[in-house]
Amino acid sequence: PRDVLHRLLEGLQTADKNGYGDGQHHQGLMLESKPTPVVGIGLDSCVIPIRHGGLFLVQSTAFFYPLVDDPYVMGKIACANVLSDVYAMGAVEVDNMLMLLSTSNKMTEKERDTIMPLILQGFKDCAEEAGTAVQGGQTVINPWLIVGGVATSVCTQNEIIIPENAIVGDVLVLTKPLGTQVAVNAHQWLENPDRWNRIKSVISEDDVRKAYQRAMNSMARLNKIGASLMHKYNAHACTDVTGFGLLGHAQNLAKHQKHDVSFVIHNLPIIAKMATISKACGNAFGLLQGTSSETSGGLLVVLPREQAAAYCKDIQAQEGYQAWIIGVVEKGGRTAKIIEKPRIIEVPAKDTEGELW
């Protein structure tokens, strides 16, 4: 996990005053003869000045185990997830991707020959949709099936939004609904009577299957347009919402701000019926507390109050998907919190026959 790597690298830091520091200057751990990163360990991507010509390298990596049944969609989700970290820095044009793929030695030859090409194709198709391509990578065999990769963008300074400029009065916008972990788990529980018995009184099988389809659709969707519009509407900071949940990523972003601010979240947009499941499980997922893991989640964008509504409308116009103002930036000590009784926004608000959203 990213926080473990962070702690390990901090442990290596000794008297190097150009090291990681207090989180406010984003200086990375590296030899003094190398350029100092604009953003080092601890945020979504590293942003490193290249020694030639005023350019910057924006780079990130991610990988995980399969979480959906469809191998092709799994490949798309993995690719979208890798790209999301680069998009969170405002870098929209990705120059190259590497793919990391591990096939399981527990699979039969027929399973391997059927499943792995579909994962590869999904990953490649998503990269093509993003306007980039997979040029390299590595495949290995071990006990686990793993899929992920590396995204690399070489940028000029004005293509990057350094995520540190939130000011009091800004608002927080989220570009995808929460609840992917709950939806994926609930779908798996359809095959597990003990688990299904815990939630069948509050949700139908059809609703679970629809939530699963919505989660797959959301996870495979690129954050590229949301990233592009951050420039148009003068975003002050951004992160994507993944494994640490909404609150975890909000806290990490708040910690890196230059000004004495805190993030306060009032609204939680959640895939329809997933809040109900979470409550039925005694909040075991932490969904309403903002600690439920998300996979390939939305961008959490800090925007000037007067431009946030237009940002959301522009995403709706270009993509046909909603984005939501979920909180505000107040004066504080670089922390984030969710209010005691946040407003739950069901996404979509109404179920339409034959349509996901």
Automatic annotation (TrEMBL):
The keyword Phosphoprotein does not apply. One of its GO terms (molecular function) is ATP binding. GO terms for biological process: selenocysteine biosynthetic process. InterPro entries: PurM-like_C_dom, PurM-like_C_sf, PurM-like_N, PurM-like_N_sf, SPS/SelD. Pfam families: AIRS, AIRS_C. Residues 44-150 form the PurM-like N-terminal domain. Keywords: ATP-binding, Kinase, Nucleotide-binding, Selenium, Transferase. Residues 168-336 form the PurM-like C-terminal domain. Gene3D superfamilies: PurM-like C-terminal domain, PurM-like, N-terminal domain. GO terms for cellular component: cytoplasm. NCBIfam families: selD. This is Selenide, water dikinase. It comes from Adineta ricciae (Rotifer).
